[in-house]
């Protein structure tokens, strides 16, 4: 399994990244903002338009360090990776499975089973831990709808049917999402999921967290030899990492949503940490974004017992564990893909 390494986040929009020996150097004009040994890095994420030097790009490709480019507000632009990892037989098997509905649908079903189960468990936890602070009827109703959706997955025989069930579950989950916000409820009022651009503070945080997690999921798939662009649930589309989106589904609630809710409920992020644009969109301010990224990195270091492997691993390794299990299933080593069921 790939060991957990660090991610370098270059958050200054005017930063330029270059290579000096075995170090990544972050520059703003002539000023050196930071210097990080490449041996410590798994990926580099740049929030800006200045880019990186060709020498650094080549070194990252050679060493298997991913380069991810985001806008200063955290919108995904592109990922740059080096030569393809893994053997061609695994990728051929992946493409054959994706093209065969009889094999693609069961895998897609498992992705959604993990997603709906984990999202439902988030609601069940808040109902259990804070019964006096939530609308019990609303949360219980959402949980019931999600249980029904989870049961309905077993009879679904097409990706289209699966996506319809997922839509029902997502509507129930986000309809009760506001009940999990237990602090600064007015500033962090949530009236439903929206993006491109995010029109409230909660959606701004969720979109940012999903972008970070999606990049890590894509890296995890690459690391075990899978093609992040050939999916089972999300169909092929130029420029979309469909398999990364598939695997992201089951990890949204336990990794990204839970992290965002923790930051809000602990008061780590406040209403003043955001700026509102003329079009009504909300984005984290520079200092708040840096604090958010630092907390994200700390969260990745925390440990849990993996529900299938029964081993203690860091949260940051969960995407790698799931990518490894998916690869084992496609190679025939596992009868079925085991989703990540969080408890």
Can you describe this structure?
There is one protein chain. The protein has 343 residues and is α+β, with helices and mostly antiparallel strands. The chain has two domains: 75 residues, Ribosomal Protein L15, Chain: K, domain 2, CATH 3.100.10; 244 residues, Four Helix Bundle (Hemerythrin (Met), subunit A) (Up-down Bundle). 47% of the residues lie in helices and 15% in strands. The strands form four sheets. A four-stranded mixed beta sheet has the order 1-5-6-7, with helices on both faces. A three-stranded antiparallel beta sheet has the order 2-3-4. Strands 8-9 form a two-stranded antiparallel ribbon. α6 packs across α9.
Question: How do the helices and strands line up, and which of them pair or pack?
Answer:
Elements: E1 6-10, E2 16-20, E3 23-28, E4 31-37, E5 41-47, H1 54-63, E6 66-70, E7 76-80, H2 88-99, H3 101-129, H4 136-152, H5 159-175, H6 201-223, H7 242-265, E8 274-276, E9 282-284, H8 286-301, E10 303-305, E11 312-314, H9 318-331
Parallel strand pairs: 1-5, 5-6
Antiparallel strand pairs: 2-3, 3-4, 6-7, 8-9, 10-11
Brief digest:
By secondary structure, the protein is an alpha+beta fold. It has nine helices and eleven strands. The protein folds into two domains: 6-80, Ribosomal Protein L15, Chain: K, domain 2; 88-331, Four Helix Bundle (Hemerythrin (Met), subunit A) (Up-down Bundle).
So what's the overall shape? Answer: globular
What number is the mean pLDDT? 89
Helix content: 40-55%
- Give the biggest sheet: 4 strands, mixed
**Number of beta-strand segments:** 11
Spell out the helices and strands N to C. Answer: EEEEEHEEHHHHHHEEHEEH
- Cα distance spanning the termini: 22 Å
Stretches with pLDDT under 50, minimum 5 residues:
none
Structural class: alpha+beta
Strand portion: 15-25%
- Count helical runs: 9
CATH architecture of the largest domain: Up-down Bundle
Name of the CATH first level of the largest domain: Mainly Alpha
- Spatial order of strands in the largest sheet: 1-5-6-7
Task: Determine the CATH topology of the largest domain.
Answer: Four Helix Bundle (Hemerythrin (Met), subunit A)
Structural domain count: 2
